[in-house]
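Journal club prep — side note

Before the paper discussion, L.F. wants everyone to see what a predicted structure for a comparable chain looks like in token form. Sequence:
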Amino acid sequence: MTATRLDERQLRDHVGELADLLVDTVADGASVGFLAPLDRTAAIAWWEERAAAVAAGQLAVWTAREGGRTVGTVSLVFPDKPNSRHRAELVKLMVHRRARGRGLGRRLLMVAEQAAIDAGITLLHLDTETDSLAERLYGSAGWTRAGVIPDYAASPSGLLRPTTFYYKHVGATALTR
């Protein structure tokens, strides 16, 4: 698997496949910000809205492809405030159901972490549904659990669920800790 960072044009070219991945992820119960059932048209619109942030350098999106189809993605959101340019938020790590169980999520996570280091980022953070498969991945990949907020976000079924926040020092900062 090779992860490719998408520019604005590439994101627009792959918006249908990214939408299909998002719809599949939500249908499988992953809490990535959407309620089920997620309409493909709404998923396409959501991804299209990301193109301007990619063009502005505020969002980086990577995709993993297999058999000519997008089967995974991960993104980094870069803050625009001067006091927070050392950090980024890891968002929308998704792997299609047919591609799970082969380490793709971990590889995408590593791609995003290395890209953050290459960009001079020293601190990453994320949030995920408490007790989810994703939470186990982050814990096993060296992320530090910062805390849990009850009833933070609704699951795809609409049930309020707790969310766990994680952070990870990367790059030179990680070596000095």
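L.F.'s comment for the group: The chain has a mean pLDDT of 96. Keep this in mind when we get to the figures.
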